[in-house]
């Protein structure tokens, strides 16, 4: 009976370590404070009606970014704990147990990849892609809302072990089998990992389908594929990767769970399971995933360098083909993550050569970016700082990547800190710097005022210097033979000074983050001085700058004509003014079903982790009921009459008391 | 653009999106097929494919599922011609055939488990149950969806919008048929011959 009611849940699952108690207290206090604040300020209705149930991609984008920011703090905290441990754990155990240390780097990886980087990219795509292609909405507004809430449900589940469970996976972010099998990992930590990735992976997949269909089907008349802005092109490539790679993640982690929950033998050591199949499958998803994280950043940098050099991007066509070739090649390189598997010289050579081939399109992009600046009138605004910082770091990371693409060299540094340094170079220097550049660049479009230029540059210098101080020691440590993921080591190795240097770099980066928090607060305070009334603060080239800042929920009252891949620039040269003739606009109603489904999905996910059968049933039946309700709802759209559009547009022109976001 | 054009365009987008979804589902099946092919010989001293499968019942399953695809298409034709009763009749037929398929599959599973050939016996059996079971799970969802759509046909007028919804359900059903052809060939066909 107890088994039926509680599954594997026992009183031991209640927090009893200092970190889970701390986490629980923090989460509960934050939740109570939020509830009190919302009740006192009577904002529940506003929050629900204007935000949570919204199907407007711009609001969903903002929610993605707020969520990603919260998760970013969690991920950074993990990083600091890992580095602190490694700095002091020479000849001693440090302040963490080995198991706890492993849980921390596992959650650091999963959170940073799935919730921070992808969260920010989906946020920015939600904002910018529809504007860039002159669309009023995404193809499937409801799926967009569902995708967001599933991602949040996944994020909640990955943090939920603080409150119920006490343990997270200690396997590393990919939960590599057989270590993640029940035999070696009898707790629920791996199940938490699997099911939070299932939920957020499903959310990403829905978003991927949605953006692909939007970009293919909803472009403004006249915008052919080869007239799409580069950010949209790169997003399209990333979406193709998501669509073909994420189902592999879903299937692979599900197989691992079947092993754990039903005693199957896909990746077990006995009963003729094949654990190398897990490596193959997870990296067939994992390598495209790495490119999902960087390709959108390439697109952002292309937009930024062209805008601030006041020149069209050099070699538009080659940039498009570079993005497409990177997309295609990224499917053919997964085995370079485990050259040491022993697949033989032929297989390793093939994957080594294909990996090196990626340097060609990446090089094309780098040279095009440099050529875009060449003879341009470069305006060194803060997004350009991030861009130039990225360019330098990207070179270093690329060189390290080419180095590891060669199997004999890789044998030496496999699973060493050299590898850790390499992929952090890429994720921090490319993806995160891209996010920061993109956020600074599009901030006036999103919120209607610019960020404080001076503080942003200061944050950049903290990040840029901190990056080198933090990660160059890891390259050196890798060469000295330091393996990744060790919780303590012998002081005779001479590693400690380098670990401490890395920790100092982390402190620099943290200063950068604090500067960024201060930057946002200060910019909000000074927003009156930095208002963007024109909608085009940077002298932009693509369509999003033709809209108001912040744009009304229907984006464009009149969709501008498209002539080239920088349509707004053409229009400005021709002195184009939007017609004052408005039409009725079809809009999508708000709906709470996305949240309901995600709540049930969260319950089901939690129940599966603890094997509480009745709760799984509740979750599944709830989801099915929601979907059936939805399939009888035929009135999901409404028409915004032309007079209403005219009224809102008039408000924008006079700019009286309309803040667009409220 | 007239209202009619707009409705067609929206539904066109939805059908395209649904195709993309089907492709993602196909990737999941591709992973399961790959696992099955890799693990097929890993019987760990347990029963081999040849000892386990008996072709007649699988052949029956295949014929039933192919016929259900045919009746599903007839139902779709009736929907296009606004013949509600015929549509429901054909979909009930499809539902019964799909249900029969599922029954045969489940009885086969029960028989295997009874013989001691459960998914815990060997890696081969794990991958077999997962691949065929995932297809069976899809069939079950397809049947549920079909019931919902039959209620829809009975209760709501067959507008452009409704037809598009029913069309997507039919697409899903044909897709499962398509996957089954591969299961029949790769799992049962090759398993029986080799």
Characterize this entry briefly.
The complex is a heterodimer of chains A (662) and B (194). Chain A has 662 residues and is mostly helical.
Describe the model.
The complex is a heterodimer of chains A (662) and B (194). By secondary structure, chain A is mostly helical. Chain A contains 21 helices and two strands. Chain A is globular, with a radius of gyration of 25 Å. The N and C termini of chain A lie far apart (51 Å). By secondary structure, chain B is mainly α. Chain B has a single domain (3-193), classed as Four Helix Bundle (Hemerythrin (Met), subunit A) (Up-down Bundle). Chain B has helices spanning 3-39, 49-52, 55-80, 84-114, 123-155, 160-193. Chain B starts with a helix and ends with a helix. The interface between A and B is large, with 39 and 40 residues.
Helix/strand structural class of chain B:
mainly alpha
What's the order of the H and E elements of chain A?
HHHHHHHHHHHHHHHHHHEHHEH
Which class best fits the helix and strand makeup of chain A? mainly alpha
The total beta strand count of chain A reads: 2
Average pLDDT, all residues of chain B: 94
Straight-line N-to-C gap of chain A: 51 Å
Write the element-wise H/E pattern of chain B from the N-terminal end onward. HHHHHH
What's the main sheet of chain B like?
Answer: none
Q: What would CATH call the class of chain B? A: Mainly Alpha
The residue ranges of chain B in which pLDDT falls below 50 over 5 or more consecutive positions are none
The parts of chain A where pLDDT drops under 50 for at least 5 residues are 656-662
Which pair has the most extensive contact?
A-B, 39 and 40 residues
Helix content of chain A: 55-70%
Morphology of chain A: globular
**Strand share of the residues of chain B?**
under 5%
Largest sheet of chain A: 2 strands, antiparallel
Name the quaternary structure.
heterodimer
Tell me, briefly, the overall form of chain B: elongated
Query: What share of residues of chain B is helical?
Result: over 70%
Radius of gyration of chain A: 25 Å
């Amino acid at each position: 009976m107890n088994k039926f009611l509680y599954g594997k849940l026992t009183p031991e699952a209640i927090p009893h370590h200092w970190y889970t108690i701390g986490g629980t207290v923090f989460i509960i206090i934050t939740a109570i404070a939020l509830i009190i604040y919302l009740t006192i300020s009577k904002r529940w209705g506003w929050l629900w009606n204007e935000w949570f149930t919204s199907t407007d991609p711009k609001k969903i984008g903002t929610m993605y970014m707020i969520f990603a920011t919260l998760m970013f703090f969690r991920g950074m905290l993990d990083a600091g704990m890992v580095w602190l441990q490694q700095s002091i754990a020479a000849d001693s155990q440090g302040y963490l147990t080995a198991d706890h240390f492993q849980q921390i780097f596992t959650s650091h990886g999963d959170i940073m990849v799935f919730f921070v980087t992808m969260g920010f990219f989906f946020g920015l795509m939600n904002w910018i892609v529809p504007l860039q292609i002159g669309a009023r909405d995404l193809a499937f507004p409801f799926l967009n809302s569902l995708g967001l809430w599933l991602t949040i449900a996944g994020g909640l589940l990955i943090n939920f072990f603080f409150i119920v469970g006490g343990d997270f996976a200690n396997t590393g972010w990919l939960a590599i089998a057989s270590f993640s099998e029940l035999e070696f990992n009898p707790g629920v930590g791996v199940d938490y990992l699997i099911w939070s990735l299932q939920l957020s992976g499903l959310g990403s997949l829905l978003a991927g389908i949605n953006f692909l269909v939007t970009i293919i089907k909803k472009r403004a008349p006249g915008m052919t594929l080869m007239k799409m802005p580069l950010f949209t092109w790169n997003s399209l490539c990333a979406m193709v990767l998501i669509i073909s790679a994420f189902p592999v993640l879903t299937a692979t982690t599900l197989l691992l769970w079947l092993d754990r929950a039903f005693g199957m033998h896909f990746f077990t050591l006995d009963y003729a399971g094949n654990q190398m199949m897990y490596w193959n499958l997870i990296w067939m998803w994992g390598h495209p995933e790495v490119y999902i994280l960087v390709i959108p950043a390439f697109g952002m940098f292309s937009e930024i360098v062209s805008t601030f050099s006041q020149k069209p991007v050099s070699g538009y066509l080659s940039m498009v083909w570079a993005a497409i070739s990177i997309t295609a090649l990224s499917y053919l390189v997964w085995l370079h993550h485990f050259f040491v598997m022993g697949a033989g010289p032929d297989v390793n050579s093939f994957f080594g050569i294909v990996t090196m081939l990626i340097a060609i399109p990446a090089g094309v992009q780098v040279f095009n970016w440099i050529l875009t600046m060449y003879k341009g009138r470069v305006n060194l605004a803060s997004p350009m700082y991030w861009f130039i910082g990225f360019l330098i770091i990207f070179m270093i990371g690329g060189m390290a990547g080419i180095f590891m693409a060669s199997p004999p060299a890789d044998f030496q540094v496999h699973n060493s800190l050299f590898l850790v340094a390499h992929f952090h170079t890429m994720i921090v220097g490319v993806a995160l710097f891209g996010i920061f550049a993109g956020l600074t660049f599009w901030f006036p479009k999103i919120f209607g005022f610019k960020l404080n230029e001076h503080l942003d540059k200061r944050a950049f210098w903290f990040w840029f210097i901190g990056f080198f101080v933090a990660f160059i020691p890891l390259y050196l440590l890798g060469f000295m033979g330091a393996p990744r993921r060790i919780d303590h080591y012998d002081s005779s190795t001479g590693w400690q000074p380098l670990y401490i240097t890395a920790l100092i770099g982390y402190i620099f980066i943290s200063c950068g983050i604090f500067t960024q928090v201060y930057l946002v607060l200060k910019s909000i305070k000074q927003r009156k001085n930095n208002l963007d009334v024109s909608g085009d603060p940077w002298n932009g080239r693509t369509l999003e700058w033709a809209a108001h800042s912040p744009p009304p929920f229907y984006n464009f009252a009149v969709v501008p004509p498209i002539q080239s891949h920088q349509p707004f620039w053409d229009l400005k040269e021709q002195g184009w003014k939007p017609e004052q003739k408005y039409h009725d606009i079809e809009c999508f109603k708000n709906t709470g079903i996305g949240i309901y489904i995600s709540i049930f999905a969260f319950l089901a996910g939690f129940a599966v982790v603890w094997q509480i059968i009745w709760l799984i049933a509740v979750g599944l039946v709830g989801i099915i009921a929601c979907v059936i309700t939805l399939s009888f709802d035929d009135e999901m759209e409404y028409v915004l009459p032309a007079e209403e559009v005219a009224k809102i547009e008039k408000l924008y022109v006079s700019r009286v008391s309309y803040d667009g976001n409220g | 653009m007239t209202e009619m054009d707009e409705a067609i365009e929206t539904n066109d987008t939805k059908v395209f999106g649904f195709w993309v979804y089907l492709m993602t589902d196909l990737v999941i099946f591709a992973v399961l097929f790959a696992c099955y092919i890799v693990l097929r010989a890993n019987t760990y001293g347990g029963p081999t494919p040849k000892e386990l499968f008996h072709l007649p019942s699988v052949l029956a399953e295949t014929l039933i599922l192919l016929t259900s695809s045919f009746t599903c298409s007839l139902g779709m034709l009736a929907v296009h011609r606004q013949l509600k009763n015929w549509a429901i009749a054909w979909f009930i037929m499809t539902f019964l055939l799909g249900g029969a398929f599922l029954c045969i599959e489940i009885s086969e599973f029960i028989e295997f488990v009874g013989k001691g050939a459960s998914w815990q016996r060997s890696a081969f059996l794990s991958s077999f149950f997962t691949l065929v079971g995932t297809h069976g799970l899809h069939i079950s969802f397809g049947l549920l969806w079909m019931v919902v759509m039959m209620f829809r046909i009975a209760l709501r007028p067959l507008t452009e919008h409704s037809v598009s919804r029913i069309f997507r359900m039919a697409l899903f059903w044909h897709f499962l048929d398509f996957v089954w052809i591969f299961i029949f060939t790769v799992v049962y066909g090759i398993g029986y011959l080799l």
